[in-house]
Amino acid sequence: MSYATFTPIEVTKAHVLGCAYSQWYPKLKAHAVKSIILKPLPQEFLDYLASDSIKLENEAHGVENNSDNEYSDWEDDLDGEDDGETAPTVTIDQLQALHDQIKAGIDKLGGAVTPKLNWSAPKDARWIMAGNTTRCTSPNDVYLLLNASDHVVDDLDYPFSSVEEAGKSSQGVEDGTDKVEYELVLRKWMDINPALEFRVFVKDNRVLGISQRDLNHYVFLEALQDELKQVIEDFIYSQVVGQLGQSQYIVDVYVSRPSNKVYVVDVNPFSRKCDSLLYTWNELLVGVAPELRLITETNVGRFAQKEYSESQVPLDVVDAAGNSEAMVELAREWAKLQAK
Q1: Domain ranges of the chain
Q2: Cα(178)–Cα(180) distance, integer angstroms
Q3: How far apart are the C-alpha atoms of 257 and 261, rounded to whole Å?
Q4: pLDDT at position 188, please?
Q5: Pairing state of beta strands 292-293 and 206-212?
Q6: Distance between CA 36 and CA 49 in Å, rounded?
Q7: Where is the composition biased (Acidic residues) (predicted)?
């Protein structure tokens, strides 16, 4: 019986830091969606994002209050009960400057943005937004979406969890020299076709493979497979390789049809922490012939699990998210169950 050899991947802190949005965006700006990067971020804002509670204050006349917000602390409405703990709250006193910057950024980018931190976008928290989207039209949308995301928490708590240098893993920030300067990225909202997003694996400045990102079967892609592979490879070799200061990374791209214009969506460290999608990491590392892999009728069953299902919530919560009365009622029922 033969076994696949586990091939280690050397990932350094420099690799991780070099894939932060503010590091790659200026180099590939001509091929990326227009973005605004806000940094440094107030510690109070980072503490809020890392907290378990979701408590926001309504925006009114450029300031915020807590009178009618449908997402304010539910326990305030539960028969006046108070457990003595106060949920972190985005307040005007602490975050006025950042709040104004976010609001101005949204206006400058056309009235709608999708946010992210240095590395991760809060796609896993789309369930909390009306319409199941990452589209934000106000600062409160940005706060809510980021606070509900496990991906964002991972950015904050374990920025170097993929690092492996000289055979030793680094599970977090170990000393002052590794302190991360966190950034809030506002990207102009772009309503894209998820079927045309692809993940490109690059090592030693060579494309190892390309994978469809959205794990659903799109019949029309099969006829375009060879054309899309050529377009993506040409773009990576002509516009990306040699621009990022490192030779291994993972690039997420979007191909706009019918023009075949390629946009860079994100750049990720080349590590097992990043989903290899339709490849196995062993295939990528041993050097199979590079190809564009798609979900087809023959393999669709292998990828039937709903995306980000581990971060999602019951349908009742999703249905109640756009209705403040339903949300309060849901919280009351949950409190009763907890009491029992």
Answers
A1: 34-189
A2: 6
A3: 7
A4: 98
A5: parallel
A6: 19
A7: 70-84
pLDDT for 290-331, tens place per residue?
999 999 887 765 555 555 544 455 555 555 555 666 666 666
Positions of the chain with pLDDT lower than 50, given as ranges: 1-2, 60-82, 166-167, 169-177, 309-311, 340
Q: Map residue 315 onto helix, strand or coil.
A: helix
| Contact (Cβ atoms closer than 8 angstroms) between residue 330 and residue 317 | yes
The residue behind tokens 């240098």 is: 165
**Maximum C-alpha span of the chain:** 70
Contact 215, 275 (CB under 8 A): no
* Alpha-helical segments (H) within the chain: 13-18, 21-24, 43-50, 92-108, 139-147, 150-157, 221-235, 281-286, 315-320, 324-339
- Give, for 197, the enclosing helix (H) or strand (E): strand 197-203
pTM listed for this prediction: 0.78
Contact criterion met (CB below 8 Å) for 215 and 254: no
Distances (CA, A) of 269 to 5, 15, 139, 206, 305: 22, 6, 29, 15, 25
| pLDDT score for 164 | 74
Pure H helices in 64-172: 92-108, 139-147, 150-157
149, 129 Cβ separation under 8 angstroms: no
What residues does 31 pair with on adjacent strands?
none
Identity of the residue numbered 244: L
